Amino acid sequence: MICILSEDKKEVLQHINPLHYGACLKLTEQGAMNQNGSFHKFIEYLFSQEGPFYKQRVVWAGDYADCVEDNEYNHFNMCDDKPGLRIGIDNLCNYKYLVNDSKKEYLNISKEHSNHPIVTIMADGNGKGGGDYYGEAGQWKMDRIYTTNEKPKDMKKLDLIF
């Protein structure tokens, strides 16, 4: 579940269910580059300057994630009582960079990856259920992110391949 979070990271403001856009259920399935090309382009658009979630706090919440501080639910379960946001997938384009505005880091997402970086680097709950990504994941969960075609300045480049 793609969750847009409040500033304190304790509330889900909006969410998008990947299943509504033809993606599969598990993290590695949602991230698989060979299966979900148009879905990934759509997600990249959502976090671009033209999209509705530019520089928003986001987490790719899994059902096995830990509970949110001072709450009996995790971000995934918090979505149960809210209608998921549905947006048309008209704006499909490729972006070169995924940027973490919170940590002042960026990643080249136009490189060859087996899993889309936006799914893996934002994951919460990885390693606690089936269909997980076997490798480092979740480094940017709950941070402010955006996508762009302009190389970020004054930020650290990460050389991660997913």
Describe what this molecule looks like in 3D:
The chain has 162 residues and is of the alpha+beta class. The chain has one domain (2-158). 15% of the residues lie in helices and 21% in strands. It contains 4 helices and 8 strands. It has helices at 27-31, 37-46, 75-78, 117-121, and strands at residues 2-5, 12-16, 56-61, 97-100, 105-108, 123-124, 143-148, 156-158. Strands 1, 2, 3, 4, 5, 6, 7 and 8 form an 8-stranded mixed beta sheet that branches. It is globular, with a radius of gyration of 14 Å.
Anisotropy-based shape? globular
Strand proportion, as a percent range, falls in 15-25%
Distance between the termini: 19 Å
User: What's the main sheet like?
Assistant: 8 strands, mixed
| Proportion of helical residues | 10-25%
**Mean pLDDT, as a whole number?**
79
Query: Can you tell me the number of structural domains?
Result: 1
Low-confidence parts lasting 5 or more residues at pLDDT below 50? none
Assembly state here? single chain
Count every beta strand, where a strand is a DSSP E run of 2 or more residues: 8
Number of helices: 4
